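Section 3.1: Structural characterization of target chains.
Under the original work plan, the team committed to producing a structural model for every single-chain target entering the pipeline before any wet-lab resources were allocated. The record below documents one such target. The sequence was received from the expression subgroup and is listed exactly as submitted; it comprises 571 residues.
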Amino acid sequence: MKILIVEPDQERCLFLSTQLKVFGHEATRCETARAALGHFQQQQFLLILLNQKLPDMDGLDLCRKLRTLRNGNACMILMLTEHEEPQILKSILEAGADDYLIAPVRAELLKVRLMVLDQELQRLYQRNQALKALQPSLVQIEKAKQEWEATADSLTSIVCLLDSQGIIVRANKAIEQWQLGKVLSIKGTSAHALLHALCPDPECYFQGFLRQALEKVAQGKSVEHEVEDRILHRHLHLQFRPIKAGTRKALKKKESFAVFMINDISERKQWENAELYQRMLLNKVANALNVLLIAPDFQIGVTKALAILGAATAVDRVYIFKTHPHPDTREPAMSRLFEWVHKSTYTQIENPEWQNLSYNDRLRRWYKTLSESRVISGLTKDFPVTEQAFLTSQGTISTLLVPIIMNEQLWGGMGFDTCQQARLWREEETTILSVAATSIGGALLHKQTEERFHQISTELRTVFQSLPDEYFRLSANGSLLDYKVEQGAEAPLSRTFIIKWAAKLLPEEIERQFDAAIARVLKSKEPAAVTFWMPATGDEPRKYQEVRVFPFLEDQVLVVVRDMTNWKLNT
């Protein structure tokens, strides 16, 4: 990866640059904050090695400045410091650094830190990809909008010719479709009487608009107005267009003064409101996922995400449940894991009915429907009797259950309950919430897998630390994941094998044998062994060592190293 080194000490800067190149990275060097800002604005770096002490600016201030720039949050910052006081180290992290390294810098520690930061970069990339996964839904919303607008444009309109007093001269048959009168008998009726035949107020909004419109038309200007008409119970688009003198003559209607068009835009208004709601809901889903992904405490992150979804959907309760075998009968059951409730609603997370709840008792239909990746929604009163009793006991008036499918299996689901008023869900809403459920479910599964892996790693490390031999755990690409070496004068391996291997200084033949053994084990999943004499270095005599390589997990190897010098000399 591309790394920017900001180090005023030329000797240390050269050391860092050399080591980074040995590790396979591309390094750019500079000595001042001003130069660093110039490089950062011209190139994109994945990591910045930044000394806390710079000649022209404090390293902490530079760190804060970098975070405010474009792409400032798209890179990792490793702060080099000579201080070990907790308060100073805390200030480094608060300034925006991702980690720190205490000078003098050792090559092996630098390599490990770089590997850790590289893993953090990978996780950051995965989070960004999760958010980008919502983009197709936005495209679908935009496409639907265009279709809705096309539908609104094709609505049947009323078209009337009016005289200068607003009296109808002629109208089309649309007035009959609107049930406002007959075409043959409408002539001589005022436009106000056409629309508001039963209006008790002669000075209603339409009378005032009609007077203003006729005045504008007399000046050769067109007038448009949209209004929610409470008498017709429709949203209307009203348009007045002046008729030019030549057109009047062609119509042979001297009294024709203006064209009055009435469009029923009620359907269009409904679509616009639905579009605004869906855009809002989609934004809230993205916000909830972002909160979940960046929250330092996963439990708090899930709760905040559910709160965002609950407020956006105007429900009283949002919860996540997991499907699992019942601890006693092993039949399919569900348990509620997380919950958010409105302040006016009782929580159900502590309700024992919602823990290890067997689907086979009352909710067999739920298990079948959710397993088929279909949602369950409706009013409680319309559910089967056994389900009604269960939902009513929780105060649920209506509900929506969205399945979470992982690896083609029912992992669980998300529930949205209303307890104050009935709610029917539209297909567009369930589609968006299904995306949210799948994304949140994936985050939960990833978190559980991560915690399980951490537990296994901790247990294995405890076992390995108790072994007398020295070991290294490596990934498929040779990255060092874990190791255990004996410290002190009795264990020269920590100063020979690991240091030379990390720095790529092992004799070429030994390194070739070692790499070949790893490749064989990864391919065959069978153990391999390499024995060799480690050349003498300085005061250290040469050592006869045995390296055994074992397959570990799916794509890792465990390397066990033993000093066999005494055995070799005595045989």
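Residues 417 and 565 are 71 Å apart (CA to CA).
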